[in-house]
Amino acid sequence: MLMTNKNNSTFDPAAFLAHAGLGRKIIDVKPNQTFFVQGDPADSVFYLQSGRAKLTVVSQNGKEATITLLSAGDFVGEESLAAVAGLRLSSATAVDACIALKIGREEMIRVMHEEHEFSDLFMKFLLARSMRTQADLVDQLFNSSEKRLARILLLMAEFGKPGEPETFIPPITQETLAEMIGTTRSRVSFFMNRFRKLGFISYNGRIQVHKSLLNVVLLDQLPEHNSEKPPILSNAQSLPVRPTMDSPLRAARANMTPARWHSNRAQEPA
Length: 270
Hints:
The protein has about 270 residues and is an alpha+beta fold. Helices cover about 35% and strands about 20% of the residues.
């Protein structure tokens, strides 16, 4: 008796992520619309088919910070796969129009257990996300805010990803950029103007990132000295010390013994 394979068809992860089906559906998300909000039940994972999104958290005192930016091919909401489903730890919001596949928690767990090609793909994504998080931490600890801004702009333009970079980054405010690199909006404005004058970026309705900006991150090539540090003054240029009204009195007190100082202080007029 011949044995036949119950399932002659092979699983295609790309087809699974491209189409709706049991436990998954395709959704359209408009700019500034949320995929989910911090504190919502973590019951699904989203696969971004097109568009850009951002991941943000809000502290107990109401301060919001942007954790990372998401682009096509990224998963978001993977915390729903924990052993015990909990609440969302962050909020995911569309930066521009997005199309995403929403996969229910049960379906996501099933396909990861049954289809090794998909679990391999998802594991590679998690490792890449972990490496990106570590790189963000190192960047925050050791690099200047100007260099951190250059790195964020390159990531948004998708330099380093397979294929040609986008060069044009999605709409983003200077406040959001300041949150991501840990500085003020005024400093971001200063650096952006500096990058434009040096030919690293250009403005034409949208921000376009040029390949020359890679030199700032990879080769640390910025003309002049660090623009974040004030120039060191020589002795001849040192700032004058502003005299105070009681400088002579303080100079005299410096040479007094404690007993004599207190004796003279008692004789001073109130």
